């Protein structure tokens, strides 16, 4: 943590000053007492994002687009990241009406390509103050217009959903993405577990839930998009003790047993496949998988010999 604090001071505070507020994810390093006390001593307000809702800090998520710029560089992509970052920050952004570097430093930054675009005119005294004030007002107005436009787009697809303290809701869990299947991707669609009681409303779009001991490692505040009103039909409720959920609310699918095996006959090849039963609470779930893949990953399932239909 001391190394992280030194890096924060050297890369952020020294170059840009002490921030008034910062938005951070819920990494254990940022939620630790050391980090909180450091920011408090610097006078910085720390705002933690809502768990499982990346839209909270969409601006930083936007930088993932840099990956598309480095695919052509192969193994040396890391050497080009600084110039790609500079090019991105020195490009015009419609949301603020100028480049981020221009908004930060109050002037255009000379690039390696357009040497003649930046003049040598010097602005001093009241003129500099007036120009800076005008730029800040312009950026703020553009940001407000952009927020309003983005909100109008999102509101068209968003249904108003509100809960009260004491309501019981279902919590969304997602299938584990690392499972690869034969013939199709994703055997189970996203589903809900619960119900859980709402204990507190956080702001306008987040709620705190009373979680069981099985989810003690999961942050208990969720965006409303991850919740659904509890239905009276008990057959639709999936209790947590019947499934396995990790700290990222991914439903962990595991095969229970090998039911049968066959040989898939193609024109020029034969592929041994096995019928696998999965741990599902929606009734029996079966898929046909490659035998060699499952034998490598789950050898204990093949301890019991299953008769071959071909024999």
Automatic annotation (TrEMBL):
Integrase catalytic domain span: 1-108
Protein name: Integrase catalytic domain-containing protein
InterPro entries: Integrase_cat-core, RNaseH-like_sf, RNaseH_sf, SH3_Tf2-1
Tree of life domain: Eukaryota
Entries under Pfam families matching the protein: SH3_Tf2-1
Source species: Mikania micrantha (bitter vine)
Single annotated GO MF: nucleic acid binding
Biological processes annotated in GO: DNA integration
Signal sequence, start to end: none
